[in-house]
Amino acid sequence: MLGLEADHLLVLDGGLSTALEEGGADLSGALWTARLLAEEPERIAAAHRAFFLAGAKVATTASYQASLEGLRAAGCSDAEARGLIRLSVTLAKQVRDELATTRPGLLVAASVGPYGAFLADGSEYTGNYGVTKARLREFHAPRLEVLAEAEPDLLAVETVPDVVEAEVLVDLLDDLGVPAWLSYSVKGEATNAGQPLAEAYALLAGHDTIVAAGVNCSEQADVLGAVRAAVAATGLPAVAYPNRGGSWDSTTKSWAYGEAIDLDLVEGWVAAGAGFVGGCCGTGPADIAALADRVSGLSGPATP
Known about the structure:
The protein is of the alpha/beta class. It has a single domain (10-295), classed as Homocysteine-binding-like domain (TIM Barrel, Alpha-Beta Barrel). Helices cover 42% and strands 16% of the residues. The chain contains twelve helices and twelve strands. The strands form three sheets. An eight-stranded parallel sheet has the order 1-12-9-8-5-4-3-2. Helix 3 runs parallel beside helix 5, helix 3 (41-54) packs parallel to helix 12 (285-295) and helix 5 (78-98) crosses helix 7.
């Protein structure tokens, strides 16, 4: 199952935005990393390459903020918007294939950000958008279809703050039939929208398309509890990639970062059932290199 055989652990990449900023990219504006798909795609390819060379086995595409509605609002035609979303996957696949001889087994995960990412107001960290399930389905379905057409290895449905949105997304994933992980943004023992984690992860159980469940873009101190809750509810390998802490400034569209991931915590995540580990906002290629080195001797969970 996507390289998650028994005793196998996959290292994810870090924050794509972080690698791009380290390379000198300007990510201001509502489209964030997605703006570079049209203007500087070579920067995105370089960021994927840097993470793979650092030891990541999975590249997460520059589609987190790349919704059809958001791209059309930025002046793209529908055809151009669809082409840019497909390009996000193509770029990562090209880098994967370029490195295949020396680094076999690399994967591409097409990023699916929450509705709050499209709003570009930080609401992916709070949830409770005040919109109907029908509106969420209308927003997510077309992008998921375009991403699936580009044939990534799997979908990374990430930073989901709310059980309501997760329910819509899982139904759409079942319709598509493309393997995916789904990770919540969490605070303590609840989603960012306040639902108990046991309830949130129970929603993901029993769906063939969900291959892992877990947590991302959250405080590292909250990861272990989320991993345990995800594994207990789903029986699946967990995915764990916290951010570097700090806070999101919705005015400047930037993070004020805290401390780097404490690598001493990672062994506990793996022992609790994490099969995918990496970093989110604030985690660059050097951080992933250190993480990959630290977990190189660890075993991941057995595939159920």
